[in-house]
TrEMBL record:
Residues 8-189 form the Formyl transferase N-terminal domain. Catalyzes the transfer of a formyl group from 10-formyltetrahydrofolate to 5-phospho-ribosyl-glycinamide (GAR), producing 5-phospho-ribosyl-N-formylglycinamide (FGAR) and tetrahydrofolate. Its EC number is 2.1.2.2. It comes from Bosea lathyri. Pathway: Purine metabolism; IMP biosynthesis via de novo pathway; N(2)-formyl-N(1)-(5-phospho-D-ribosyl)glycinamide from N(1)-(5-phospho-D-ribosyl)glycinamide (10-formyl THF route): step 1/1. CDD domains: FMT_core_GART (cd08645). This is Phosphoribosylglycinamide formyltransferase.
């Protein structure tokens, strides 16, 4: 009888409805998926994704950033403690609407990934679909990357592309990109949780 390797304990950070979190939780139900979604943590009390996580039987927690009087590192240290208590090995950002300090990023360096709605290095930051349309792009998409201190600048693990169609607006383009995110993110998490992709000396290493 073949014994499957131990699954990585993953904590997902969310701020809202958590649609990417749901796609990850669904993928993790497969017995051969190399990651277990062990915790969903939100900075927003009552975030819709918390209830969705509980429907999957996933433990949830909230650390309200507003309670820390704009002390970002104190907020992150509180989050880090929750992650530690829950024995989290890997952090996944899924619609987490806070910019991390260098302290937190370095604490989880090589063990934290994010999904961004553009084909990085194009269109960092917010309003990426608007930026793509204004730039006259013929294709757009999403990227999963390791998190580094510089915003949206970490090495890219995987990308998915969609065409920009005549008549597209931000909403229609965002809808098609989000559908790709829901497929891409579980695939990318499987790559890093299994060790097939890693961050080594600031660059991607693939096995």
């Amino acid at each position: 009888m073949t014994t499957l390797p131990a699954r990585k304990r993953v904590g997902i950070l969310i701020s809202g409805r958590g649609s990417n979190m749901v796609s990850l939780a669904q993928a993790a139900q497969a017995p051969d998926f190399p990651a277990e979604i062990a915790l969903v943590l939100s900075n927003v009390p009552g975030a819709g994704g918390l209830e969705r996580a509980r429907e999957f039987g996933i433990a949830t927690a909230t650390v309200d950033h507003r309670a820390f009087n704009k002390d970002r590192e104190a907020f992150e240290r509180a989050m880090d403690e929750v992650l530690r208590v829950n024995q989290i090995e890997f952090v996944v950002l899924a619609g987490f609407m806070r910019i991390m300090t260098s302290w937190f990023v370095r604490r989880w360096e090589g063990r934290m990934i994010n999904i961004h709605p553009s084909l990085l290095p194009l269109f960092k930051g917010t309003h990426t679909h608007r930026q793509a349309l204004e730039a006259g792009m013929t294709e757009h998409g999403c990227s999963v990357h390791f998190v580094v201190p510089e915003l949206d600048a970490g090495p890219v693990i995987a990308q998915a592309k969609v065409p920009v169609l005549p008549g597209d607006d931000e909403e229609s383009l965002a809808t098609r990109v989000l559908a790709q995110e829901h497929t891409l993110y579980p695939r990318a998490l499987a790559e890093v949780a299994s060790g097939r992709v890693a961050l080594v000396d600031g660059v991607i290493a693939r096995r």
